[in-house]
Amino acid sequence: MTTQTGHTIGKAAAERLSIFVDAVIAIALTLLALDLPVPHGDTTGAMLSSISAHGKEYLAFALSFVVISAHWRAHHEIFPYVRSLSGRLISLTLTWLFMQVLMPFATRVITAEGAFPLRFSVYAIVQVLASASFALIIREIRRGHLYGTGGPPKVFAQSLTRSVCLAAVFGISVPVSFLTNDTAAYLCWLAAPVALAVARRVQDHRPPAT
Questions:
Q1: What one-character DSSP code corresponds to residue 39?
Q2: Rounded to whole angstroms, how far apart are CA atoms 108 and 104?
Q3: Which of 44, 65, 131, 202 could cross-link with 166 by S-S, CB 3.0 to 4.6 Å?
């Protein structure tokens, strides 16, 4: 166990934190599924009509499931390299988890009726804060040298670039939603894969971080 400045804790604590993260993510996904509306109808046609009427709720569920899963996957790409914790890293991880737990609420908000720009912005801002807090997690790991021996793995830089790009894309979509006042704001989110591809190409041409 390390007792240097920053009060770092051993690898066993990092593993316990990862287990805790897995449990919270599982709860967030469960809460997300519990909000799904149940279709009703006495006939096949009525059931299909009910499913169609709740289409936006089902699409929002699928989107949020993918988003939460992507956040979880990013965490699992990073934390196997973590060998110790700092108080700041724990706080940032809890902040990031708070955003994951808020995701089911934000999903209900975005599928409600009326005031589209505000509802859209609530969901987008949760994504901005989630991506930004994860970027700060990576920065703290690198700043505090909380990883194993040798230089920081390449996956750190890749994940940091991805988090910054996603925060930027979701952030830009907020003013766009107020300017367009319609679902055209969702097009900003579709630009995320392009932004990530460009950022990855730029990242590949940079010298490795030390």
A1: P
A2: 6
A3: 131
What is the arithmetic mean of pLDDT over 173-186?
Answer: 86
pLDDT digits (tens, 9 = 90+) for 132-170: 999 999 999 999 888 877 667 788 988 898 899 899 999
**How many alpha carbons fall within 13 Å on the CB side of residue 79?**
24
Give the pair of three-digit tokens for residue 136: 């700060």
The residue type of 138 is: I
Which residues lie across from 82 on neighbouring strands? 147
pLDDT at 6: 46
Q: Map residue 82 onto helix, strand or coil.
A: strand
Alpha helix positions (H), the chain: 11-34, 44-53, 55-78, 87-110, 116-143, 154-180, 186-190, 192-204
Helix axes 154-180, 116-143, angle to 10 degrees: 160
Amino acid at 86: S
pLDDT tens track for 55-89: 788 888 998 999 999 999 999 999 989 988 999 99
Section 94-121 average pLDDT? 93
Collapse the DSSP code of 147 into the 3-class scheme (helix H, G, I; strand E, B; otherwise coil) and give the result: strand
Predicted confidence at residue 40, as pLDDT, reads 78
User: Encoding tokens for residue 95?
Assistant: 């902040």
- State CA 69 to chain mean position distance: 8
Which residue is associated with the tokens 């706080």?
91
As beta bridge partners, residue 2 has none
Which of 168, 167, 142 has the alpha carbon at shortest distance from 157? 142
* Pair 194, 169: CB distance under 8 Å: no
